[in-house]
Amino acid sequence: MKQFKLWINNAWADPIDGKVMRIEDPATGNIIAEVIDAGRADVNAAVQAAHTAFYDGRWSRLTPKERSLALWKLADLLDAHKEEFARAESDNTGKPYSFVSLGADMPFAIDNLRYFSAAARDTHGNNAGEYAAGYTSIFRKEPVGVVGQIAPWNYPLMMAIWKIGPALAAGCTIVLKPAPGTPISTLMLGELIAEAGIPEGVVNIISGGNDAGQALVEHPYVRMVSLTGSTATGKKIMRTAADTLKRVHLELGGKAPFIVFDDTDVASVAAIASLTSTFNTGQDCTAATRLYVQKGAAKDVTEAVVEAMRGVKVGRQYEDDVVMGPLISGVQLERVSSFVDRARAAGGKVLIGGEKLDMGGGYFYAPTVVVEQDQQAEIIQSEVFGPVLTISEFESDDDAVRLGNNVLYGLAASLWTNDIGRAMRISRDLEFGTVWINDHIPLTSETPHGGFKQSGFGKDLSAEAVNDYRITKHVMIKL
Ligand code: NAD
Asked: Which residues contact 106 (CB under 8 A, 6 or more apart)?
């Protein structure tokens, strides 16, 4: 069984007041590792390390080129160890090894680091000029300082990279807390960070639960908190952060609509709807969750989607051709299953799935399609975070926009049509941070990812993410 301590000052640290916590493989329920549930004193030690590292300038005062080279080296190291990390990720989350961990998460995480390495050297937006007679003004982009970064369990390593990449590019120092159940790949990153030449104290990694997160958010030396997690946690963190007036960067829940007009190719709609509602077992904040189909195409699209869902192969990490693994935990399995049970009881029609799968252990749930016409139904309004797609019908373009927007969330949406004018109008009117036209989910390192409404604010990925970890300082010089 693997055992990890806390990663502070580029070394494994014994806990001060933390306790041992056990980590399981959701595909079997077996315990695979022991890590530390950091206590308040441990969080404080990590923040002190980041604070010292920030104020002596060992990272923030390096040239952009030096920071960039270290990030590039970290990307090379991650690439060299990708199978090892992908295995650790699959064992801790149940993700299919070939299809998700090694095939999707690792190459994207490595590319994200290479992008942030390049972004560290970007000079865009650094202005100097004379805005008052006799004075020159300079706009300096300063790193925010010590940042507390709190990650979710659905893409543990990739979320760690989305957090540390832009913060390091900006010159910040970091205390990073992975989600309680999925800390392994993030803790493993510590040794690569040291090997890449990133100085001690610049990235500190503390495994732990919500209390450790709370202690991090309360700490007066932490200048900014970046969370990827649920909307409820985002609200709590924002309230706590108000006491010390910290900046907050919140990537929260989603409930993506997938809007299909009757001029669309049914086969591509079915293939992408089934893929993107079941990828990572639907535990994706941008997953397709609400399929709205225009009346004329409803029968064909519904039949094709159900057929495509039937073809989704569910299984354990290393089985051949598996595309969908278990849910992350027993708690999540109960949560998803009770959502579907309530939807059925409220009149939703389950066309396929709607049940737990007995695979001899582990937390498996079947790919599920629920037909529901009531826009206010819980299954349409709430984030399920499982392989569950609802299908509802609409008539006009206005209906599509109204229904698509009618949830608290605003992270991502897609629309499917061959009419370019309609695609442009509707992408303008949808209140979501990303709108895909004739596809769903593709992401790139260069393009911003973040929410509208109760999906939060601040961007991950892209130059905007780096800028979120900077503060502009105006220096004015009398000539
Ligand atoms: P969660 O909110 O339960 O936990 C997220 C993290 O916050 C964990 O590390 C947890 O320990 C920590 N935390 C919880 N309470 C805290 C508190 N009071 N103070 C400080 N930290 C606290 O979320 P989860 O269940 O791990 O992840 C699933 C959620 O994440 C979903 O809602 C999903 O939509 C969202 N998500 C969003 C994005 C995005 O980019 N917007 C990406 C992935 C996941």
From this structure: 78, 82, 85, 86, 89, 157
**How many Å apart are CA 285 and CA 123, to the nearest integer?**
32
CA of 364 to the centre of ligand 1 (A): 21
How crowded is the C-beta side of 63, counted as CA atoms within 13 Å? 3
- Quick check: is 251 catalytic? yes
User: How many structural domains does the chain have?
Assistant: 2
Q: Is 393 a catalytic residue?
A: no
Q: What is the mean pLDDT of each run of 10 residues along the chain (479 residues)?
A: 97 98 98 98 98 98 98 98 98 98 98 98 87 96 98 98 98 98 98 98 98 98 98 98 98 98 98 98 98 98 98 98 98 98 98 97 98 98 98 98 98 98 98 98 97 98 98 97
Verify whether ligand 1 is closer than 6 Å to residue 253 (CB atom).
yes
pTM of the full structure: 0.97
Q: Ligand 1 test: best mutation among 211, 226, 233, most atoms within 8 Å of CB? A: 233
Q: What is the DSSP letter of 97?
A: I
Amino acid identity of residue 81, one-letter, is: H
Query: Are 199 and 347 members of one domain?
Result: no
Ligand 1 centre distance from Cα of residue 210 (Å):
9
268 and 237 both lie in a single domain: no
Instruction: Look up the domain containing 101 and give its range.
Output: 2-252+455-478
Which of 24, 89, 172, 285 is labelled catalytic? 285
Quote the ligand 1 centre to 249 CA distance (angstroms). 12
